[in-house]
Amino acid sequence: SEARSSTAEPTVPTVTKPFSVVFGKYLAENKERQPRTQSQILFGFLKFTAAIGGDKPVGDITREAGRTYKEAMLSKNLGAASVNKYLHGLSRCLEWAKGNGYVPEAWVNPIKVLMFAKKVVRKQATKSIRFTDEELTAIFNDAEFTGWKTRHPEFYYGLLALLLTAARREEVYQLDKADLRQDSKTGVWCFHLLDGGDEDKEK
Q: Torsion angle, CA of 11/21/108/49, rounded to 10 degrees?
């Protein structure tokens, strides 16, 4: 009888498409999103490829690559919530890639474990940093914001009210026309706000 070779066949590495191709298809399939949201997601993916030194096969994305991306964002002073937002977007794309067969079933998403714990995000969220006058001027003079005056007046005037009164969002957005009053002594117009207790408070 013929002798059979006991030499095992070499393992052929799984070839996967470039990440740029995969996330392009991911964005195309989810094109019903708002253009602004799509742009933010694309921006995050481009930041990722820049951080890891360029495009690579989606199946070759490792936890080390994700950590490099995370550290690059932290070096730019992004907070935990912002870092998690970008990591979550990347993770969703990779999950979509697996669900659509761009990586093997045995492949494990390496990005999920890199996100900050919720308690870290909450702890950072309690720290507030005041806007500078220059930052406020840039925000409220921006063409997108001023365009809301006609397209979304509820957003435009609501944000202005928040800026000028330092009231809480819930206080401002429950206001009615009757809550805009003029002081009989000074002639100053003010908002009549409920302060959360039994007494009203004017601002």
A: 110
Q: Which two tokens stand for residue 45?
A: 């993916």
Residue among 11, 14, 114 nearest 59 (CA): 14
Q: With H, G, I as helix, E, B as strand and everything else as coil, classify residue 78.
A: coil
Backbone angles phi, psi at 166, to 5 degrees: 60, 20
* Model confidence pTM above 0.70: no
Q: Specify the pLDDT at position 197.
A: 41
pLDDT digits (tens, 9 = 90+) for 124-161: 876 667 788 888 999 999 998 999 999 999 889 989 98
d(C-alpha 111, C-alpha 108), whole Å: 9
Q: Hey, what are 69's tokens?
A: 């991306």
Q: Which residues contact 122 (CB under 8 A, 6 or more apart)?
A: none
**Tokens 């191709």 sit at which residue?**
21
Q: How many CA atoms lie within 13 A of 74 on its CB side?
A: 12
Residue among 48, 90, 89 at smallest CA distance from 69: 48
